[in-house]
Amino acid sequence: MTGPARLGIDVGGTSVEAVALDADGSIRARTRNPTERGEDGVVRSVLAAIRALDTPAKTIGIGIPGRIDGGRVHDAVNLGVRELDLAGEIWRRCGAPVAVDNDVRGAALGAASRTRAKSLAYLNLGTGVAAGIVVDGRVIDGSSGVAGEIGHLSIDPRGPQCACGQFGCIEVFAGGGSIARRAGEPLERVAERADAGDESASGILADLARGAAAGVRALALAVDPEIIMIGGGIARRGERLRSEIAGALARAADGSAFLASLRLEERIEIVSPDDAIGAVGAALLGDRLGA
Ligand SMILES: [Zn+2]
């Protein structure tokens, strides 16, 4: 197809992934470029992605970490952004309508486009842990914009302290940033040590599965979605992660006919790391603009 497309830009901590989406949802162009930090750096990175797509824009949707309010980004700490009128900056330079939302909520829309399910939760296990909830094609924002922030649900009051100030949050056990801090090395190294029989490394992986399983239960009990898709950097662990979380879900359901009846281990799916759901979902954010 030719003519204007919906552009979707997913701004991550290290790279910006972008797609141009045709009316039928197929990807016309796809690019990736490094993320520059700071307010000006983020604007430059998004503009570089738009230029690289080399496709006229019908709408521009941007998914970015942080608290989003009317196209403005607040406190995207990992990007070095305190406050940025991202929608305004991009609109002034490109002239196309711009929608901005939190990256995990954008990815949830992208995940929902991969299934016929009417209700879906997307659990992102990245540097941090958060979820997006989509019901009948709409993302739930909540009254103050924190719907889905289940990474800060405490599951162990005697656990390690979280950056949010609470103790034993899901994010402490299942967030890549916290795992790397506790282990002193990234998850891939922890997994290698666990494979070699190291007990402390196996314990970290067991905590990861327990934390992710608690997130799945929270989403299931609050929303009862048909599918819970799991993505983010940690989901690169693929089938092993799925079976570890399924095992933790089954152990928690042991002795509870109620939990067992929910068959949660059958509702979880891992997003393929090659699937650009963040950028695709960002492109779908543009549909909110009615352009
Ligand atoms: Zn927390």
TrEMBL record:
Q: Which PANTHER family match?
A: GLUCOKINASE (PTHR18964:SF173), ROK (REPRESSOR, ORF, KINASE) FAMILY (PTHR18964)
The UniProt entry's sequence similarity note says:
Belongs to the ROK (NagC/XylR) family.
Q: What is this protein called?
A: NagC family transcriptional regulator
**Which species does this protein come from?**
Microbacterium nanhaiense
What phylogenetic lineage does the species belong to? Answer: Bacteria, Bacillati, Actinomycetota, Actinomycetes, Micrococcales
